[in-house]
Design brief:
alpha+beta, Phosphorylase Kinase, domain 1, 2 domains, five-stranded antiparallel β-sheet, 14 helices, globular, Kinase-like_dom_sf
Length: 420
């Protein structure tokens, strides 16, 4: 049966920015945005931008976008070139919490280095950095980065604007193209290898691996060392931030099983690399797309790091690719329906990782495709995902994954497939 529908129209790029209107007037988030807007020296910012382009006049566009940590405004020059200025706002730990251990300046340093590295060494569409100043007491009034403007919307936001069908990014054909492009980006990152685990930093004219944002530690020489630090950090944050009722339950001890399981189910745990590049915050929320859901940009790059393979081999978030909890028997009809609908999407994405679109690929890409397609459904990658769910501080998730971890332990003891 042919169903004819009218596609929802949408504003793209800076035309979709809502200022602080998404927040309740007078609320803490709205007040922070309005005050920040007032204290920034926008005239000094435009003067600097003009100077960086040999005196070409420019203006700040009125709409702005705000997230948890940053305000973004578009700078338009008289020759129709556009930049964006992204400025770091004061933190609101009481509202958003603080799961990252690195200070804001170091986080911005990581992101600048990552954008510069990928601009030089990959075809992944990332913003080009033109200038940055990480001093909070600079003449502008806040740490900031000036970078190229990419005309697009986050895929997750555009999907909502267009009222797309469940688990689809618009039409089936556009959804397929979007997922293919997403897989190709994940592969291109994974094809880049380093000999240590951690985030990218500038080192003169080159780059080096240093501490990563979540733990604030690193670099590490082995996967086991990194996993130990990550697990310890998750426990410390949970002890500090989780509700008392969550901490009372036996499943709050979930992380204690993680390292023993990884020694049984992971690969290369004690070997010294190489380690592949991954964006740990990779998903539809930081992929900019055009009106047809073609990917035009990858943003918010402070989550990019060189990592162990089972951390690299994770499905993108907010894309309908949520893993099942192994061995958990779901009883709610809506959850069962979601699981059944998700299984073919997971299998299809695994095939996209394995199969290049073009005939000629490099040896590094070929190796990345083979190992990611193999490991993304492995027990090791699933166990890593299970520990990541502990960061949500939810008893229901902890209970499910505690059961899965216990089944994995039992499976090794019995030499069976009890966890599956």
């Amino acid at each position: 049966m042919l169903v004819v529908t009218t596609m929802a129209t949408s504003n793209l790029g800076s035309a979709s920015w809502n200022n602080a209107d998404d927040y309740e007037s007078g609320g803490e988030l709205h007040t922070r945005a309005v005050k920040f807007l007032d204290v920034i020296n926008w005239e000094a910012l435009t003067s600097l931008a003009s100077k960086l382009r040999d005196g070409t006049p420019c203006r700040i566009e009125q709409p702005y976008s705000i997230g948890h940590f940053n305000m973004v405004r578009r700078i338009t020059f008289t020759d129709d070139v556009s930049w964006v200025a992204r400025l770091r706002m004061p933190d609101l730990d009481a509202v958003f919490g603080s799961w990252e251990s690195l200070d804001p300046t170091s986080l911005m340093r990581v992101e600048v280095a990552t954008m510069k590295y990928l601009s030089r060494n990959a075809s992944v569409p990332v913003p080009e950095v033109y200038h940055y100043d990480l001093n909070r007491n600079n003449s502008i009034g806040a740490p900031f980065i000036m970078m190229s403007y990419i005309h697009g919307n986050a895929a997750s936001e555009l999907r909502l604007q267009k009222d797309c069908p469940p688990r689809l990014f618009r039409t089936p054909e556009q959804d397929r193209t979007f997922r293919r492009q997403m897989a190709d980006i994940q592969i291109e990152l994974a094809a880049i290898q380093f000999d240590r685990i951690g985030s990218l930093y500038e080192d003169g004219d080159s780059f080096t691996i240093g501490p990563e944002p979540e733990t604030g530690d690193g670099p590490w020489d082995t996967a086991a060392d990194y996993y130990r630090s990550w697990m310890r950090h998750l426990v410390e944050v949970a002890e500090r931030d989780a509700d008392p009722e969550v901490k009372k339950k036996p499943s709050f001890n979930l992380p204690q099983s993680f390292l023993p399981l990884m020694h049984q189910y992971s690969i290369g745990l004690t070997s010294c690399g190489p380690f592949r590049l991954v964006n740990r915050d990779f998903g539809a929320h930081n992929l900019l797309v055009d009106d047809n859901f073609n990917i035009v940009g990858l943003i918010d790059l402070d989550g990019v790091m060189a990592a162990p393979i089972d951390l690299v081999a994770q499905f993108p978030t907010l894309t309908g690719l949520d893993r099942e909890t192994p061995g958990h028997k779901e009883t709610k009809p809506a959850a069962i329906e979601r699981i059944v609908a998700t299984r073919p999407l997971l299998a299809d994405y695994q095939r996209l990782l394995a199969s290049p679109q073009q005939q000629s690929i490099t040896e590094d890409e070929s190796a990345a495709r083979a190992v990611l397609a193999d490991r993304i459904t492995s027990d090791g990658a699933t166990i890593v995902y299970g520990l990541s769910r502990f960061a949500g501080h939810q008893s229901s998730a902890n209970d499910r994954w505690m059961g899965a971890f216990e089944r994995y332990m039992g499976r090794k003891a019995l030499g069976s497939d009890a966890a599956s």
